[in-house]
Specification:
Number of domains: 5
Number of strands: 33
Strand content: 25-35%
Helix content: 25-40%
Largest sheet: 9 strands, mixed
Structural class: alpha/beta
Radius of gyration: 26 Å
Length: 692
């Protein structure tokens, strides 16, 4: 029997999705900061026990472990990365502060400058200069370089980013600087811009390389510990890691570019959402993922969520590698509820996994969103929580709400909890509006897909406020990002700079660049056990009109199997120019026929198909009213009233539930608000429709 396991580490819980013979088994365990590899091993042991096997026997039968993590994001959020230094071309040490001369949000006049991950005293320039065509204009001054490196050493720098002008055209100076750095600072981590992001513009490349250096030690240290523990436990294959692009690749591939795992946890959910969009014939989705620590928003259009390249602002840093667009808000079940300046504020501070909400009974003292929905009756002490791994308790919850919110506001415990519910819901709804408005999308045209342990608690009421009339809640919603990782294809998405007018481009040079990218991708796929015959390659070129800052990616050719670059010729370039005009008009509503576009680089996306979990649909089963397991007092926005409670395990395809009602699944709770109806489709997933 071959198992495939998806793993997603969150701030509070670590989620698992086990695929076996077309079936999916879900599991959760509390995360274990600061070493989350312990939670991964604990969850794998639980899965092994459920399968009636020892851990070593179980892991010997596992075909793949696909891992998404928020460790890189948490490093940036908490600003606890490595002590980082930056070596750059003399005169360019302030690149990170100057940025592009404007803020990432140009309309927010109150937006303060971000904290710098590399302060100015650790940003040093060295005399050297390479021109845009790769010509060495000024040789590297090695004596000056050594003085700069020794200055970084005296500041106890742990990780060094090296980003020199036009190193993507000729990396010789960057590589020599790396040699000198290793010579003076043995054991220090080094990030080279010619490897992390070998393309223009300068700020994008420097920012991406600096972030790579800052998060590198924490990400690589964690992955190394996990790989070691897996090997000791009996796992003999390579660990596959979710990338921010929505694809997966081996740990070895990510060795020099840990930045590619940034936002890899949420990316798994978006991949799964695209599968749901296609299977359930709901191509345009608003995806909301509320876990224990954060709330992630993304949009799937046409059953697709392609990775965006270039202008990706993440935790106030520009990231140039391909990323699935996800907006993250500090709003989850563990978000702290407090009174500040006379008003209720929820998040972004979180109780996390340790100590967690008060109702976990693990030492928490500050009220959280999970505590609030326990007071409101949405959760209950009698409910099976987190698969029965521990029980909820009301002890200490009422006292905390009374002392920390009720007394300062002059209200009751129930009112304080309801106000907390309203505030966190408003925060999340506003995040949705920001995301959709930024994309020019009316949320009313979308179907909401809700997942995460807490997503289905708030989904329908958020949808109602946004004018959305249908909500999908997969039965796998509590570990949906882990399940999405199982659907992600092993892929590599890289590019190489080539700055030239499209009319003057050399087909031979493009062939060389694509061949280099193809050979690199092939070597990693073969090392991971995949075959060249199964490798899909999409050859692309980035172009822009003269004077533009950003480039568009134009598809040139897609192939499957052995490398074949015979299509690269003068005719291809002529077709490319017309293709760019069409693409620009489709994206921006106009084209400049009289201008010859510039090529900025060659891009290659490669992937292989893998077995994916099934995402079913349809309403073939006879419709019938579900039988409640009981009732309890709950406040779903209309005050406390008797509310029907349903056990998710007892519900089957065809069952209907009219709101108000609460469905208790193993790892999540689905709230059917007044005016809504829930139905189970043929796959056992929930479809919530607004009946007004």
């Amino acid at each position: 029997m071959g198992y495939r396991i998806g793993v997603d580490i969150g701030g509070t819980f670590t989620d698992f999705a086990l695929s076996r013979d077309g079936e999916v088994v879900l599991e959760k365990t509390l995360s274990t900061p600061p070493d989350n590899s312990l939670a991964v091993m604990e969850g794998l042991a639980k899965l092994a026990d459920r399968e009636g096997r020892s851990l070593s026997h179980f892991l010997s039968e596992v075909e793949a472990i696909i891992h998404g993590t928020t460790i890189a994001d948490n490093t940036l959020i908490q600003m606890n990365g490595a002590v980082t230094g930056l070596l750059t071309t003399e005169g360019f040490r302030d690149e990170l502060e100057l940025r592009r001369g404007f803020k990432e949000d140009i309309w927010d006049v109150r937006l303060e400058a971000p904290p710098f991950i590399v302060p100015r005293r650790r940003r040093l320039g060295v005399p050297e200069r390479i021109l845009s065509d790769g010509t060495i204009y000024e040789k590297l001054d090695e004596e000056a370089a050594l003085r700069a490196i020794r200055r970084l050493k005296r500041q106890d720098v742990e990780s060094v980013a090296i980003s020199l002008l036009f190193s993507f055209a000729n990396p010789v100076h960057e590589r020599r600087l790396a040699e000198l750095t290793r010579q003076e600072m043995p054991g220090v981590e080094i990030s080279l811009s010619c490897e992390v992001l070998p393309r223009a513009p300068e700020f994008d490349r420097t920012s991406t390389t600096a972030v790579n250096a800052y998060i590198g030690p924490s990400v690589t240290g964690y992955l190394d510990r996990l790989v070691e523990r897996l090997a000791e436990a009996g796992y003999a294959r390579q660990l596959l890691v979710m990338q921010s692009s929505g694809g997966v690749m081996t740990r070895d591939y990510l060795q020099g570019s840990p930045i590619r795992v940034l936002a890899s946890g949420p990316a798994g959910g978006v991949v799964g959402a695209a599968c749901v969009a296609e299977a359930k014939e709901a191509p345009d989705l608003l995806c909301v993922d509320m876990g224990g620590t954060s709330y992630d928003v993304s949009v799937v259009i046409g059953a697709s969520a392609p990775a965006e390249v270039g202008w990706n602002w993440h935790h106030r840093n520009l990231i140039g590698v391909p990323m699935v667009n996800v907006e993250t808000l500090g709003a989850g079940g563990g978000s702290i509820c407090a009174v500040k300046k006379g008003a209720v504020e929820v998040g972004p501070e979180s109780a996390g996994a340790a100590p967690g909400p008060i109702c976990y009974g693990r030492g928490g003292l500050r009220p959280t969103v999970t505590d609030a929905i326990l007071v409101l009756g949405i959760l209950s002490e009698e409910s099976t929580f987190a698969g029965g791994s521990f029980e909820l308790t009301r002890k200490g919850v009422d006292e905390a709400f009374r002392e920390q919110l009720g007394d300062p506001l002059g209200c009751s415990v129930e009112e304080a909890a309801f106000d907390s519910w309203r505030v966190v819901n408003a925060n999340m709804t506003q995040a949705v509006r920001r995301t959709t408005a930024g994309k020019g999308i009316d949320p009313k045209s979308l179907t909401m897909l809700a997942y995460g342990g807490n997503g289905p608690v708030f989904a329908a009421i958020q949808a109602e406020e946004l004018g959305i009339r249908r909500v999908l809640v997969p039965r796998s919603s509590p570990t949906f990002s882990a399940l999405g990782a199982l659907a992600a294809r092993p892929s590599i998405d890289e590019e190489r700079a080539y700055l030239v007018s499209a009319r003057d481009a050399d087909p031979g040079r493009l062939r060389e660049l694509w061949c280099e990218l193809d050979e690199r991708a092939e070597s990693h796929f073969l090392a991971a056990g995949f075959k060249r015959d199964d490798m899909r390659a999409s050859y692309q070129i980035n172009l822009r009109y003269p004077g533009q800052n950003f480039a568009l990616t134009v598809d040139v050719k897609a192939t499957v199997g052995p490398r074949d670059l015979s299509f690269v010729d003068d005719a291809m370039l002529a077709d490319l120019i017309e293709g760019f005009h069409r693409e620009h008009e489709a994206c921006y509503g106009h084209r400049r026929e009289d201008e010859v576009p510039e090529i900025t680089g060659a891009r290659l996306q490669t992937s292989v198909e893998v077995e994916s979990p099934a995402f079913g649909a349809g309403f073939g089963a006879p419709q019938q009213a579900a039988t409640p397991a009981g009732t309890r007092l709950a406040n779903l926005g209309r005050g406390f009233e008797e509310t029907r409670i349903y056990e998710g395990a007892a519900l089957q395809p065809g069952h209907e539930i009219d709101g108000p009602g609460i469905i208790e699944e193993t790892f999540t709770t689905i709230v059917v608000y007044p005016g809504w109806q829930a139905r189970l489709d043929d796959a056992g997933d929930y479809v919530l429709d607004h009946m007004g």
